[in-house]
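Cross-check.
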Amino acid sequence: MLRKGSKHIMQCSRVLSGHHEPRGKPDRKNAGPSNSVRRALSILDLLNRSSRPLSFSDITVELGLPKSTTSLLLSTLETLGYLIRDGEDRRYWLNPQASTPWFAPMSHLELTGIALHVLKPISSALSLTSFVSVLEGDQVLFLAKADGPNHSSCDVYAGRKANAQCTAVGKVLLAWMDTEAQRKFLSRHHVIPHTNRTITAKDALLEELRRVRQLGYAIDDQEEALSIRCLAVPVLTEQSPGTVALGITGSITEIRSDNIASLVRHLKQMAARIKCPDRRSWFGPGAASALTGNVAAQ
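Predicted model, tokenized:
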């Protein structure tokens, strides 16, 4: 006989997996993504985006879920270690120890899936690590990457966040903001030098962003890490001009002054192949492979 707690966990697991007792044979042909899985992920995404713990009522109202469903999903996610609950106020927040590298990009799955089809040929052709990024709050969020043959960068991975001012993708995303938005961004930040090459003066950084906008690409010349260079270009589409950046990273011997022009030209050509979706989708094209967001070029 199962104990009460074991029965509860089994019931919770059935909800998360979308399992229901079948009436007749299940129609596997028309089976779509489980609504319960979507709802569980929507709770995680909501808490990930929130700057404070949320109450049961906050979550129910924000997501428009039935109270019984919300209660069972929250209990399941807490039991599995994804959430922490304050016993007195019944407020929930994400458990930092349960975070995974692919969690942060979950709300960008459709874009990630599309981008992966472009990243793999870039990394294969250039033998460098390529990636796509967006701004998440005031930081750069790496959505996906692909490693080239015999080339792997452990410092770049899906879900990583970095300071925008000292990264090539960050400079691109800042450069395509309007001037007022740039000044507001810089007023909120005290630029911390990562290396002795990091641009820390705000006027110098604004000048750098003007240069990036004029040239159509940005370079991180050992500004975040010594001996590493990165290049980035904007993804320019009608839906989201300059809100997505495409970049590559390599050593200072791989990205050199004599090959930057050809590398940038290749990046711009490939960036034109990325068609940003009109909206972010939980289960867009390529969502299955986008759950990891990290691939190696074949």
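The longest strand covers residues 139-147. Residues 104-296 form a domain with the Beta-Lactamase fold (CATH 3.30.450.40). Passed to J.P. for a second look.
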